[in-house]
Target: Exodeoxyribonuclease 7 small subunit
Amino acid sequence: MSDNELSFEEAMAQLEKIVEKLETGDVPLEKAIDYYQDGMKLSKLCNDKLIHVEEKMTKIMNEQGELEPFHIQEEE
Model:
């Protein structure tokens, strides 16, 4: 499965595994660099997916079928 086919949740799970491996400190330098590069790719993928969803959520259909901005009302 290519990175672009990963869901946000799958990419986050892989990223969390990479972070766990790097945090142990028992990873050889070359492997740590590979993990770091993979982690950066997954991080960008997750960020891109979040931006895409945010863009979709900022617009909703109004009663006439036109797109309009979607504003979230914060609780007071």
Q: What stands out?
A: The mean pLDDT is 84. The CA atoms of residues 4 and 69 lie 28 Å apart. The chain has two helices and two strands.
